[in-house]
Design a protein that fits this description.
With 159 residues, the chain is α+β, with helices and mostly antiparallel strands. Helices cover 41% and strands 35% of the residues.
C-alpha cells in the first residue's frame, strides 16, 4: 500500500468504522446525554448509519489524562466511556474525527476501521469455558486414599 494514499484516492465506498470516546467526568447526566446525542448526530450528518452502540458509562482510567480547554489544564482519573459502530464513506469518517477533536468535553477518542460482525465474545462464553476447565481438572486429578498414601511413603522409606 502506498504511503501517499489519501482519502480521495481510497474511494467513496462505504466502510464500517467504530469510534470509542471518553467524555470528561464533570459533565452532568443531562450533558452526557447531549454529548452522546451530538456524536450520533455527527454520524447522521455525514449520511452514516449507526450499526451498534455502547452506552456511555463512568469508568476509572488506567492513568490520569489531561485536557486543555478554554486555556485551562485539567487532569482526570475517570471518564464516561462509550462507542458507536457505524457505516460511512471514508470522507465522513474524517469529518467525525474533526468534530470530536473540536469538542471540549471529549477527553480522548479512537476512530478505527472495523468489520460489520460483532467481534466481542459474550462473557457467558468465557464463564462456561472456565467452569468446564475446572470440571476437567477435577476429573484428571488422581484420587488417593489415606491408606494408599501411607503405603507409598512406606515403600519410599524402605528403598
Amino acid at each position: 500500500m502506498e504511503k501517499d494514499m489519501t482519502i480521495d484516492a481510497i474511494g467513496a465506498d462505504e466502510r464500517i468504522y467504530e469510534v470509542g470516546f471518553l467524555i470528561i467526568p464533570t459533565v452532568n447526566e443531562d450533558g452526557l446525554v447531549a454529548r452522546v446525542a451530538a456524536i450520533r448526530e455527527a454520524i447522521n450528518s455525514i449520511n452514516g448509519t449507526v450499526i451498534a452502540e455502547g452506552a456511555a458509562k463512568k469508568i476509572d482510567l488506567a492513568y490520569p489524562m489531561t485536557k486543555v480547554a478554554q486555556n485551562k489544564r485539567a487532569t482526570y482519573s475517570s471518564a464516561y466511556s462509550g462507542w458507536f459502530k457505524f457505516e460511512a464513506e471514508p470522507k465522513g469518517a474524517k469529518e467525525i474525527a474533526t468534530v470530536l477533536k473540536a469538542d471540549e468535553d471529549v477527553l480522548r477518542f479512537l476512530l478505527i476501521k472495523t468489520v460489520r460482525e460483532d467481534t466481542m465474545a459474550p462473557r457467558k462464553l468465557f464463564e462456561k469455558k472456565k467452569e468446564g476447565k475446572d470440571a476437567d481438572e477435577a476429573e484428571v486429578a488422581p484420587v488417593a486414599t489415606e491408606a494408599e498414601i501411607d503405603a507409598s511413603i512406606d515403600k519410599l522409606i524402605a528403598e
